[in-house]
Amino acid sequence: SAVISQKPSRDICQRGTSLTIQCQVDSQVTMMFWYRQQPGQSLTLIATANQGSEATYESGFVIDKFPISRPNLTFSTLTVSNMSPEDSSIYLCSVGAQGPQNEQYFGPGTRLTVT
Amino acid sequence: GQNIDQPTEMTATEGAIVQINCTYQTSGFNGLFWYQQHAGEAPTFLSYNVLDGLEEKGRFSSFLSRSKGYSYLLLKELQMKDSASYLCAVVDSNYQLIWGAGTKLIIKP
Questions:
Q1: Cβ-defined contact of B48 to A103 (cutoff 8 Å)
Q2: Contact across the interface for B96 and A45, Cβ inside 8 Å
Q3: Which residue of A has its CA nearest to B47?
Q4: What pLDDT does A33 receive?
Q5: Which terminus of chain A faces fewer neighbouring Cβ atoms within 10 Å, N or C?
């Protein structure tokens, strides 16, 4: 299994500002994902971070609002831009395992509060 | 559309057995996962089923019936530390993970 770290673990930000969340994996992985989990709800996939090309965004999420970088196979960043209180959520990085089951492993998450 | 249904919340007693059901309607099927998520923590992998039948792993077992679009997670000899949310997720025909809303399991002494 992969060990995943995220920074920051939590932050309180003002409306209109941006926050960049970092995700570091202890081994090279092909698939990296960014999820959002709002209080009491399940996971919503924001995008798949592709190494060497643009991220693939899910319906309802756009690059201008959630720019993603993936400079190599162990690191990715997600920026939440021009934040509003509706962006208050937990943001989770995950990686897809190699193997037939392809289970995902999750980072500890970043708890974001926008005031 | 794609849909996964799980009960919102369940309560069980320490030492007992509980079954958490998951029904799904997805475009294609390439497997079903169960994850455990303690409050304030990230989800952790519990089980994966792709063929019909029961997969046992210690106190936890997971069952799948593809024809019925149905799975359940069975937890035996419940412990207080099993209090958590349990998420069902299905891999669709595009190998995308479709997540259920999760079942919050409350264990009482």
A1: yes
A2: yes
A3: A103
A4: 94
A5: C
Q: By three-state DSSP, how is residue A97 classified?
A: coil
CA angle A90, A112, A32 (to 5 degrees): 45
For a pLDDT cut of 70, what percent of chain A falls above it? Answer: 96
Residue contact A42–B96, C-beta within 8 A: no
Give the tokens for residue A48.
């798949």
**H/E element holding A17?**
none
Closest CA to A79 of A61, A95, A94: A61
Q: How confident is the model at residue A101 (pLDDT cuts 50, 70, 90)?
A: low
Q: By the 8 A CB rule, do B13 and B108 touch?
A: yes
Q: How many CA atoms lie within 13 A of B103 on its CB side?
A: 24
Q: Tell me the mean pLDDT in the region B1-25.
A: 95
Residue A32 sits at the chain B interface (C-beta within 8 Å): no
Strands B103-108 and B9-13 come out as parallel
CA–CA separation, B87 vs B101, rounded Å? 7
Res. A98 pLDDT band, cuts 50 70 90: low
